[in-house]
């Protein structure tokens, strides 16, 4: 291939990547710009406008806004459900891939996980509400943590299964010969080797929990409402506070962005380690 053809190919590849980045980033840029506009400027579609922080101040400090409480609720529920999912998924992945289960047991479990993951969460919300209400778990952190953990566990089980399966069996056998019990093997051998997988799975689980809406809307009230529920309340029957909704949406992106920046190295390693031998 000539130098000219190589340069053209490189230019075309970069142009396509830039176009894809613009397509992906445009909605975020539009929402961010809308957060700094007044409601009138937004509805009039003004491209040039005087930025204002009024929307953020109203979301964070207004006496009628519960956004700070909603933000705290989402953090508590997201972190707790993620920790629970990682704990259960790691144990289940180790059991399915390293214990002597018949093949049909492992395939049945993973197949059921896929089927359950395909079920829309909204179809489960009313059933959970009916089960949780008699035992006092409706409008509670614990009820929503269990619901979010149930929703995200199938995805985490599949991901952790890949990482646990890639752990060399010789290390596990050596630990068993040395007299290590299962808890010691998990703590000293498995967990240190699957840290990238734990990071990738944990961040995806947290983001899915943070963004979950229909189940949170059904199982929470004002005291326990999460960020997606709070954003949805900006759309009322007679009016929609677009600017306030945009400001709340921008603030809701911060935890995910911070997590991705801090742990991007582990995410890349975790998502690619199972694909390369």
Automatic annotation (TrEMBL):
GO BP, one annotated term: transmembrane transport
Span of domain ABC transmembrane type-1: 71-263
Name this protein carries in UniProt: Carbohydrate ABC transporter permease
Membrane topology of this protein: Multi-pass membrane protein
Subcellular location: Cell membrane
UniProt family annotation: Belongs to the binding-protein-dependent transport system permease family.
Example of a GO cellular component annotation carried by this entry: plasma membrane
TM region positions: 12-36, 75-97, 109-129, 141-164, 185-210, 240-263
Keywords on record: Cell membrane, Membrane, Transmembrane, Transmembrane helix, Transport
